[in-house]
Write a structure and sequence with these properties.
By secondary structure, the protein is an alpha+beta fold. The protein has helices spanning 21-30, 45-51, 56-69, 120-125, 155-158, 164-171, 181-185, 192-198, and strands at 32-33, 53-54, 75-81, 88-95, 98-102, 113-117, 140-144, 147-148, 175-177.
Length: 208
């Protein structure tokens, strides 16, 4: 693994205090949600800090940058859904041989995972029953192989441009299906109380 660039340590000095996954997640939670009003974005970690907002991909990139700064590999994991729902991106980490995840979300679900999962699949599947539409339809269908970011050098940390090339490469990376057609047919819809709880949000979308 390449080391975090020493030349960028000053720009990311805030990362020094974020020396545990819990602290990183607390930091992510304080950043407001990027509702992408007006245009889609895929901002670098430095631009997220400057704009003080992030959606799940941007939050995962920021979390991965903090992990890298602290000597751990920057790795993303994608959760892919049916076409009528939205995917979710995680920054993943390992402790004592077990996997955990850092996430940025506006909802009561699809959040942080403690490092208690023995495999990437087990970690990914911990999100399965939280992934549903207002109709109760469960939508998670696959998860990606761990996607290392250090192969992109360090430009993704500070780029002023949207990271669409990185995003496209990530989305096109290998994914693993979690269901066959028969299992999909047999899925039980989420309960009404689960659907109600899933609508709880931290941040309100600005008007206009």
């Amino acid at each position: 693994m390449k080391k975090f660039p020493i030349s960028l340590k000053k720009e990311f000095s805030v990362f020094k205090k974020l020396d545990t996954p819990g602290k990183i997640q607390d930091f992510l939670n304080k950043i407001r949600i990027n509702f992408e009003v007006g245009k889609r974005t895929c901002r670098s970690p430095l631009q997220v800090l400057k704009n003080k907002e992030a959606h799940c991909m941007e939050g995962a990139l920021l979390a991965a940058a903090v992990l890298w700064h602290n000597g751990e590999p920057p790795i993303l994991l994608n959760l892919r859904t049916t076409d009528d729902d939205y995917g979710h991106v995680l920054a993943i980490f390992k402790r004592r041989g077990r996997w955990g995840a850092l996430t940025k979300t506006n909802h009561a679900v699809l959040r942080y995972r403690d490092p208690v999962y023995v495999s990437i699949r087990e970690l990914a599947m911990s999100y399965f029953n939280e992934y549903f539409l207002d109709s109760g339809k469960k939508t998670m269908r696959s998860y990606s192989a761990p996607f290392g970011l250090s192969k992109y050098g360090s430009d993704w940390l500070v780029s002023k441009k949207n990271l669409w090339k990185l995003f496209d490469g990530f989305m096109a990376s290998k994914h693993f299906s979690v269901l066959d057609k028969k299992t999909i047919r047999d899925l039980r819809p989420a309960d009404k109380i689960e659907i109600k709880a899933g609508k709880i949000t931290e941040w309100k979308k600005p008007r206009g």
